[in-house]
Specification:
seven-stranded antiparallel β-sheet; disordered N terminus; mainly beta; 14 strands; 231 residues; 1 helix; five-stranded mixed β-sheet
């Protein structure tokens, strides 16, 4: 699990989140810094990552070489790389640098966040980002008071009239508190420092919501659609 950290500081993940090596699926809009070398370099603004998907489902070895591929997503293109690591915190901090991100840990149902299943790290700059999994796109925005809204769109454009969103209350962000019996959320989002500068999601969009938008469906069985707004 993630250790509790002071708000707005880099998230500290432990190697014990999973018991062995983890595999990280990382996406970035450019070939560098995640592809082409065994040690990713710190990102530049134009090549900051979109997502990290952290799982132990595929098996991993510390000697496994990074794998990289170019993935067309609609009219966009992302580069996806696979890495084995025992230090998720160091890898996350390395590839995101100072860019804001949101970590969402997923735990096995009915364990009250006791048994880890997977985790996703999202780019959280409030801009449109493409998912490496299913051809959708997402935006993550902080709200006044420290809550956070995760919005997904059915294509890569972020301009569709139908979107899906989840708003998670501040009491579940950077607190180690278990959300919906199976999630923990940790944010490194400097926008939390300036509530006056925080913009809510557009009210001109007809929003729908479902619980599973925070995670790709291939990692677990999806649950029925629900409106999730906490305070």
């Amino acid at each position: 699990m993630l250790h509790k950290t002071p708000p707005l500081q880099f998230v500290v993940l432990t190697a014990q989140f999973f018991t062995q090596h983890q595999i990280v699926l990382a996406a970035t809009p450019s070939l560098q810094p995640l592809c082409g070398s065994e040690t990713p370099s710190v990102v530049e603004e134009q090549s900051k990552p979109t997502q990290l998907v952290i799982t132990d489902q595929f098996g991993c070895s510390s000697k496994r070489a990074p794998e990289c591929e170019e993935i067309p997503i609609g009219e966009a293109t992302l580069f996806r790389s696979q890495h084995c690591t025992e230090d998720i915190a160091a890898f996350t901090n390395l590839v995101f640098g100072s860019a804001p991100y949101l970590v969402v840990e997923k735990y096995v149902n009915d364990t009250n966040c006791g048994t880890a299943e997977s985790a996703v790290v999202y780019n959280a700059d409030g801009e449109c980002s493409n998912s490496i999994i299913d051809g959708t796109s997402f935006k993550i925005l902080p709200k006044a008071g420290g809550s956070v809204t995760i919005t997904t769109y059915p294509t890569t454009s972020c301009i569709d009239t139908v979107a899906e969103y989840v708003t998670v209350g501040a009491k579940y962000v950077n607190t180690d508190r278990c959300y919906e019996d199976k999630f923990r959320l940790y944010a490194n989002m400097t926008a939390f420092l300036s509530p006056s500068s925080i913009e809510p999601p557009s009210t001109g969009i007809d929003y729908q919501a479902r619980q599973e938008i925070m995670f790709p469906e291939w990692l677990w069985e999806p649950t029925p659609r629900r409106v999730l707004v906490t305070t």
